[in-house]
Description:
Oligomer: heterodimer
Strand order of the largest sheet of chain B: 6-5-4-7-8-9-10-11
Number of helices of chain A: 16
Largest interface: A-B, 61 and 42 residues
Number of domains of chain A: 2
Structural class of chain A: alpha/beta
Shape of chain A: globular
Structural class of chain B: alpha/beta
Helix content of chain B: 25-40%
CATH class of the domain at 112-266 in chain B: Alpha Beta
Distance between the termini of chain A: 53 Å
Strand content of chain B: 15-25%
Amino acid sequence: MTSDEIAENFARLRIAGERLKRRPIGEVLDVLGAVLDRWRDPDSIWRRDLEDRLPAATGFTAPMVAEGLRRALGHWTSDALRELANRELGPIDALDGGSNRRVSGFDTTAVLLAGSIPMPSLLALIAPLALRSPVLAKAASRDPLTPHLVAQSIAEADPELGRCIRVVDFPAADGDCTRALLEADCICATGSDATIAAVQSQARPPRRLIVDGHRLSIAAVVAPEDAACRSQLAERLAIDVALWDQLGCLSPIAVFAVGPEPARAAALGEAIAVALANAETNWPRGTVDAATAHAVAQQRAEAEFRRAAGHAVAIHASAATAWTVIVEDSPKARPAPLHRFIRVVPIPDPAQLLDAIRPLAPHLAAVAIEGFGEETVGVARALAQLGASRVCAPGSLQSPPLDWRHAGRGVLAPLARMSDIETIR
Amino acid sequence: MSADPRRAAIDRQVLEWMREPRWSYNEKRFEELALELFAFQFEHCEIYRRFCTGRSQTPQNVKTWRQIPAVPTSALKEVELHCFPASEIAHRFRTSGTSTDIRGTLYLDTLELYESSLLPTFRRFMFPELLLPEDRAAIRVLAPSPVEQPDSSLSHMFGVVLGALGGPGSDFDVEKGELLFDRVLTVLVESAASEVPIALCGTAFAFVHLIDHMNQRGVLIGLPSASRIMETGGFKGRSREIPRTELYAELKRVLGIPAERIVNQYGMTELGSQFYDSVIRGPSEPRRKLGPPWARVVIVDPETGHEAATGQVGSIVVVDLANTGSVLALRTGDLGRAILDGFEVIGREPGAEARGCSIGADEILDRTSP
């Protein structure tokens, strides 16, 4: 791929985009909704193809990919897409005329994808098209598969819409190609701090720039006294940890166990360990590199040493590095190697919960909460105030609704140009 | 020497090895001393004993030095670890770091082993041609003196090196936290003019500063061919980092010292001994880290905890007989790979793209620190 080829792609997309602009937005949403429905269908050729090929492309295991997609795409329906558009953009029927509000997409949108989890890529490619903006996407090096399959599935559903999406592959270090891509009128970029900083410094205004750095999630629960309830909660937390090998921004890195009895937090940690061992049987963790295994081993050894030094630390772990649960004795923030490594942090008093979470607040995506009884609404609101863009139940972290306001903003609205036409005499 | 008679006996044997003029990598000798020292530390350091027993590893069932339980160096940031009474602490070396970092501390009751280990190792890998005890070399140190930074093991090391090996014109070139560029450049120009080779020692980041300064002033110096550089340390907490290959290329360009005469030292506060690139001692051999006979490295597969296969990347574990007062087996935070009779240190690839969109809390802590 060269910068000239990217410029040629943009030229073709602009031509295709002119035809797209003339189509009713409702019709485009219907096509994209049908595409979503096909991706949701486990028997569709696209879904099967992704499930077959994603493990080799990303290192995830096939059972985990299948379960992750099943849970994530379950609510991503054509109806959900229409509701999303209605909520963020206004009544669909009124958007093409007859309303004082005009909504349109940009002439071109560039999407810089990151990571290896397929759902964010799917949504990132569909969203600009829903606004009738043609898309030029750069595939992530960790997942060169998903965006191409998504583009093909759109082209199959509607060849004209298919001409409005192109996926390119080039190394992130290719400055010429990156600069060419950043010539789009609207730029959506996901990635590390370094990637985001590079995009922000290179994108020439005036351009709509939507960037997302990496984020994390946590769980905050009152650990149940009843063993059966505890096991059930642990199973749901283990699903949140295990899916996508804890590498998504919706993967919890810690469980804050609120309550005056440290023994309950310890018991919850033990139950999560049992559940993670089961998860490893059902949905084994994917491959990890030496640096990851080293980080896990290092954190385990540190915890062992803290225990030897007299701290009430418990370590539950698989023989190799497949999963780890460390029950800590203080809320001190510690490294999170990810890849199914979870800390259970006891919080004696609910009033201390927010203080313990506050250092993570700038990067907080979602919080799973349970067991707060009448305080649930208050806790949820306080977490939202702290910065969580989603508060949900344990076990559902990896099944976000289509309209989840990732990073606290909408899905479609940030990509839209809206015009209000006032009454003029 | 330690006040404890049992440890003093071990100290004596280790010191004897360190003071032998000809090095011998005697496996049996190392094994016996390592197991003896492990038994002593197991007995005299309660935390370490609990750590070992937590792993069901005791002097009764640990049969080789490779099985000695290794303490992660990062744990020393939180725990005071020594196997002598706290009242006998004579020196504290603290790990480097930014002001917001928690710094680890090495507690010593004696510096005798520390100094006896570092000197012959530095001489062997930096100045193999200095054969006689009275031989000296011109050494400039781009780091603070031990007077200025008494808790820095690196400054202490350079102080000992300058005292024992530093010839005329040797000195420290960092004062009050500032690298004295004018003074360094004057010395370097004089070295080039007089054809008297010079050794520059310091942190990698100090050399980056020097390169930046020389580039700003448009200065290029061709140092005599026998000149050499020893650089050590990483870039954590610094505003800029550059790959080592790029650093070496720049050093060659501005100072005329080729990579074959630039030695990276692998050491850390928690270790009494250091490891050096082999390039000056064995210029025709593959570059690898080598150390003294009384300190060994084993590359451990982090998945299994067992020794990694040859060439496999794993965790670097050091077993160092110079650490008689703390713990001899340390699991470093670094990845490495065995090469011939040595090893190489492999850092995590900078800028490597994460597989997901999550982030480790350690990175967040780095970012949110004031």
